[in-house]
Specification:
Blueprint: E1 2-8, H1 12-23, E2 28-32, H2 39-44, H3 46-64, H4 80-104, E3 108-111, E4 113-118, E5 121-125, E6 131-141, E7 145-147, E8 160-161, H5 163-166, E9 175-179, H6 183-194, E10 198-202, H7 214-226, E11 230-232, E12 236-243, E13 246-252, E14 258-263, E15 265-268, E16 272-274, E17 306-308, H8 319-333, E18 347-349, E19 354-359, H9 362-368, E20 372-378, H10 383-387, E21 394-400, E22 406-413, H11 416-428, H12 433-437, H13 448-459
Parallel strand pairs: 1-2, 1-6, 2-3, 6-17, 8-15, 9-10, 9-15, 10-11
Antiparallel strand pairs: 4-5, 5-6, 7-16, 12-13, 13-14, 18-19, 19-22, 20-21, 21-22
Helix pairs in contact: 1-8, 3-4, 3-6
Length: 465
Amino acid sequence: MKYDVTVIGSGPGGYVAAIRCAQLGMKTAIVERYNTLGGTCLNVGCIPSKALLDSSEHYHLAKHSFDKHGIKADNVAVDWPQMLKRKNEVVSQTCDGIVYLMKKNKIDTYYGHGSFVNANTIQVAKDDGSTETIETAKTIIATGSKPSSIPGVEIDKQRIITSTEALQLPEIPKTMIVIGGGVIGLELGQVYARLGTKVQVVEYMDAIIPVMDRALGKELQRVLKKLGMEFYLKHAVQKAEVQDNQVVVTAKDKKDQEVTFTGEYCLVSVGRRPYTDKLGLENLGIETDRGRIPVNDHLETPVPGVFAIGDVIRGAMLAHKSEEEGVYVAEYLAGQKPHINYRAIPNVVYTWPEVAGVGYSEEELKQEGRAYKTGSFPFKALGRARAADETDGFVKVLADKQTDEILGVHMVGARIADLISEAVVALEYRASAEDIARISHAHPTFTEAMKEACLAATDKRPLHL
């Protein structure tokens, strides 16, 4: 078969790239090495983790918060098999939706491991041992990433696990050690903490979610501590060993003293690595940099006609970043002039309270020596937050000191994953803090915190604080 474009990988970046190529009139194929479409995000990442986060939140609220609202819910208990079943159903429905979209857009799907024979020939190795060859004018590599580990920690997928295994544990453990205080570790750690697991987070840096504005990690850690989660910052893990169905983790604290942690499971969440194994890049003469594929400003590799997007290239490993890059390449191939503002791609943590940020962090502005002003507004001053009993968190706005242009927005609190979109629009249109402050925001809503924070940044005049 001959195609205008072949996409290798069917995660959010890959399938969106394929759809946009097909919409623009290109004969398109997509290659997926597993037997379901959707990649890590839909199968063992974003979607199943959010399903468990929502289910565990319902349980936690019923057990600990319903009484306050005048709702009696006695003998509340977890049905773990049912919780996993619902999660699996959500995943199945979502992946089936991608199959539908491929058919709707007349995209040919090939299941098997795709690799390059040359720049215009893709070989697909199937599970039954057979192979199939695809001829293609252009190729988009969208093979995503895999969980990483660290020296001294060997993942056995039984007791020392990754996020994949954490989504399908046979039982709710009494204890769990989480190595890494980033997004994945905190989200899955909170799932189990809500269900009664004692969760200990061991983090090498001096803060959780350290790549985001530091004010966010500080607030989130304060709230998660109330849930019973324990945090051990500036701890360098040396090794993890399984002893009598327990995992013993050895680390050195900030005083360089050795400490140990013991748990039924150890979740290793120290980041992810680009997945380019056996892709045949050597047949194209492409050399990776720590697994990442080099690309130019148009996301084209050193080999003309071969593009790469998402987790296999530079930048944050975010599903929505991959999607934007997939659309970019498709439109570029069609002769259009697409553009991506990477500063306006939000970062979101789906714990509760949720956390999100977009644009410059305060630490980055300080490092650049840029003159800025800041305004923040706490949820506890919002009528809607009090009515919902969701008073943890705040919205923080950073604006240029001279022009008032919004440079960054950082939030923690209820419904933040949705609220951050207003900040993204503000950055895309280079709005000033005063622009947002003068826009009518419905009352009572959580979005009023954005308006008030912008008022605070503009001339220190919030209305409700």
